[in-house]
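Example 3.2
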Amino acid sequence: QLVPLAFTIKKLQITCVVEDDKVGTDMIEERIMELEDHVQSVDIFSFRKI
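Structure, written as tokens:
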């Protein structure tokens, strides 16, 4: 979901369930930050681990 912040800046809000044995939250953040031309920062608002 794209959430407007200010002016033309938008936040991409993603909901997911992370299975800790398969992938960690650090790995997800790193993969998103690889899109450096489009992503300024990554923040985890809340999460649930299985």
